[in-house]
Amino acid sequence: MAKTLVEDLEETRVPFLRGILIRSLQDAGLEFAEASDIASEVRNQLSDTALITTEDLNRMVLDRLSALGKENVVYRYENRNSLIPLQIEQQCGRVNPFSRLQFRHSLETIGLNSKESEDVVQMVQEHLTNKSINIIKSRNLAMLIYRYLRQSSKLGPAVAHRWLVWHDFINSGRPLIFLIGGTAGCGKSTTANTLANRLEIVRTQSTDMLREVMRTMIPEQLMPVLHQSSFTAWKGLPGIVQNGDQVSEESLVQGYRSQADLLALATEAVVDRATREHVSLVLEGVHIHPAFMEKMQAETDAVVIPVMLGLLKRKHLMQRIKVRSNNVPDRGAEHYLQYFDEIWRLQTYLLSEADGANIHITVNENRDKVFSEIMRFTIAILAENFDGTPEKVFGAKAFVDDLDG
Fold it and tell me: 225-229 long-range contacts, Cβ below 8 Å, gap at least 24?
């Protein structure tokens, strides 16, 4: 299908983009589904059109909006270039344009899915537009979202409470220390990156990297355990004899714990520095075992979130390892598949230890669901010592409004 070009009054030609039209319709007050349908209809109608003026394109869109009886949307879409966009005033006084994506992500942080988050953002933006509010303080917007969540028949007080607890934490300035453990192939790095990106945490560290640095400093002859994989570290232990094709459970665990113990000082130093500098951190790696998690919870004043990742079906873990080798060629699957049984047994040990220590276990079958589950667990920990009120969290009685008004 040939691309349709759109020509403006200055005779500048740009391709028609369905995504741009969807965003313009959303900004005018349509929900995503309706905006997407209209944009698709327009694109289909333009399938045989090589060139169209912006005036004719706008008329085409307005005709569809009028046919749907969306008079308020018609007005806002028709005057979108002259209307003052919604602005958010931060506590520091800086003013930023309202970002649907930013607020959708902030709602996903408290465990909402993308559709639920988009619906909330749509409702709140439409409410402010209908009231002709062009600038709003960030704390007042947060309060408005809280009130909407409480009034929502689909979400309700429990979700609103999570929003309240999370904003109280954000306002506190306290650091979060995520400790993500799990065996090879369970998705530790991906989960760590997702947490860091979504929560804007700039400091991340993997124990694999710490181990690599230590290997360059300490020769294999001196510490052979350090120069093995976590699931073959038993090969570096003195006096360990392999029984046929399988190493004993005791030797497998002993080798793993010996390697983890060698890295303990470095991993503790990473956590200590983040705590001392009052910055959030995501620390991930197979060496983040339950005993280390318990120790960090007891010895640091930061908010420590320990999570053990796992996959409960052998075929799923094996598939992850194969996929990872395709995405990262330098981490070939052959070595991991050769010792897959040891990897699986090591995961069984880690999950059992985590369960015995009441460490949160997350089954990593879906990236978005994992993020949502970890954030719900995080907020549950934060809620244990929470005694705030909406007035305290969002700032006295700064904003009194009713979404039904």
Answer: 225/255, 225/258, 225/259, 225/262, 226/259, 226/262, 228/255, 228/259, 229/184, 229/335, 229/339
Question: Which residues, at least 6 apart from 313, have a Cβ–Cβ distance to it below 8 Å?
Answer: none
Beta bridge partners of 282: 178, 204
Q: Looking at residue 55, what is its pLDDT?
A: 84
Q: Which amino acid is at 290?
A: P
Handedness of CA 129, 130, 132, 133 (dihedral sign): negative
DSSP-based three-state secondary structure for 368: helix
Taking a C-beta distance cutoff of 8 angstroms, is the pair 117, 108 a contact?
Answer: yes
Cβ neighbors of 402 (< 8 A, separation 6 or more) are 147
The pLDDT of residue 243: 59
Using the Cα atoms of residue 290, residue 292, residue 293 and residue 294 in order, give the sign of their dihedral.
positive
Dihedral (Cα; 205, 207, 212, 216), 10-degree rounding: 90
Nearest by Cα to 143 from 126, 168, 119, 122: 168
Q: Quick one: pLDDT at residue 128?
A: 80
Say if CB 136 and CB 88 are below 8 A apart.
Answer: yes
Predicted pLDDT at 403: 44
155 phi/psi in degrees, rounded to 5: -105, -70
Backbone angles phi, psi at 15, to 5 degrees: -70, 145
**All residues at 6 or more sequence positions from 106 whose CB lies less than 8 Å from its CB, including other chains:** none
CB atoms within 10 A of CB 82: 6
Closest by Cα among 163, 104, 173 to 376: 163
Helix boundaries (H) for 203-339: 207-217, 249-277, 290-299, 314-327, 333-338
373: left (phi over 0), alpha (psi -120 to 50) or beta: alpha
- 């669901």: which residue's tokens? 369
SS3 49: coil
Rounded-to-integer distance, Cα 262 and Cα 255, Å: 11
Closest-CA residue to 142 (of 185, 67, 88): 88
Largest CA distance in the chain: 83
Where the chain has pLDDT below 50, the residues are 1, 83, 398-405
Q: What is the pLDDT of residues 45-103, one digit of tens each?
A: 888 888 888 888 888 888 888 888 877 777 777 766 654 567 777 777 777 777 777 88
